Amino acid sequence: MHEKPNPHRLGFFYAVYPGDTSTRTGCSGQVILDTKMGVHNARASTTAGGRWPMAEAVDASFRYLTTADLEAIATYLKTVPARHDAADSKPVDAWGAAYADLAGVRGQALPKTAADMTGPQLYDAYCSTCHQARGEGSFDGGLPPLFHNTATGRSNTDNLVMAILDGVQLHGHGSTLQMPGFAGELSDQQVTTLGNYVTQHFGNPSAKVSVDQVRTLRAGGAASHLVLIARVTVAAIIVILAAIVLALGRRRRRPHAEAPH
Questions:
Q1: Cα distance between residue 260 and residue 248, in whole Å
Q2: pTM strictly above 0.70
Q3: Are 153 and 96 in contact (CB under 8 A)?
Q4: What is the rounded CA–CA span in Å between residue 155 and residue 238?
Q5: Beta bridge pairs of residue 179
Q6: Which residues contact 242 (CB under 8 A, 6 or more apart)?
Q7: So where are the chain's domains?
Q8: Would you call 179 helix, strand, or coil by DSSP?
Q9: pLDDT tens, position by position, 116-170
């Protein structure tokens, strides 16, 4: 299905769910049901939400399954042996709390250079309208809080970066949950500053975002070795087949060369 550089990745980006075996004693398949119901109602769950490509799987497939099918998948997932990432010292949806320090930046002049905007300034400009000043999310539950959120609590911050760059879109039955992407507005440095502000104040404070990481993810991720492996494999097969054909050709000519005059 995909290249698997570490045991907790699905495709290129994390599939985010609370029963991730890196943080629990087992894989909680109940999240399949939670995710399906959340998408059905276009409500944002911090513990059963998915990001690309998991979001695509939910949007295009899981939300159309019957409850019985989802329960069957959940039952199987409960049998998956637990895995633990040493970098995750507690469940990824247990980090953070409401936090606010925007009073000191509101009403103040912004830096002359956008790249010099601070974390609070970037958060106030791009995040606080939906996620609120204290990161509590929308009051009706339609948009998630940033604390106790798997995207901000995980030690690997790829999901958070991709959410900032590309946004999140989940289509429910008659309604849609949307977060805009800011790839066209924020520089690599700004995404890094914003990402680190969010993890420091709402999520896992040991999680870090780097400029190189943002640049790589913006470009589509690290180059895959699968294409090279495929090409080398094809070339090796061609060489082997050529050697076999050559050997057979020599065998066929040998009797004629040794025949008496």
A1: 22
A2: no
A3: yes
A4: 44
A5: 168
A6: none
A7: 30-218, 225-261
A8: strand
A9: 999 999 999 999 999 999 999 888 777 889 999 988 998 899 999 999 999 887 6
Both structure tokens of 6: 């570490």
Length of the chain: 261
Q: N- to C-terminal Cα distance for the chain?
A: 62
Tokens encoding 51: 């990001």
For 255, the token pair is 């009797």
DSSP-derived secondary structure letter, 94 = G
- What single DSSP character describes residue 90? S
Residue with tokens 């995404």: 191
Q: Which CATH class is domain 30-218?
A: mainly alpha
DSSP H/E element including 171: strand 168-171
Distance CA 206, CA 36 (A): 31
Tokens 């930046």 — which residue?
A: 105
3-state secondary structure of 189: helix
Burial of 118 (0-12, 13-18, 19+ CB in 10 A): middle
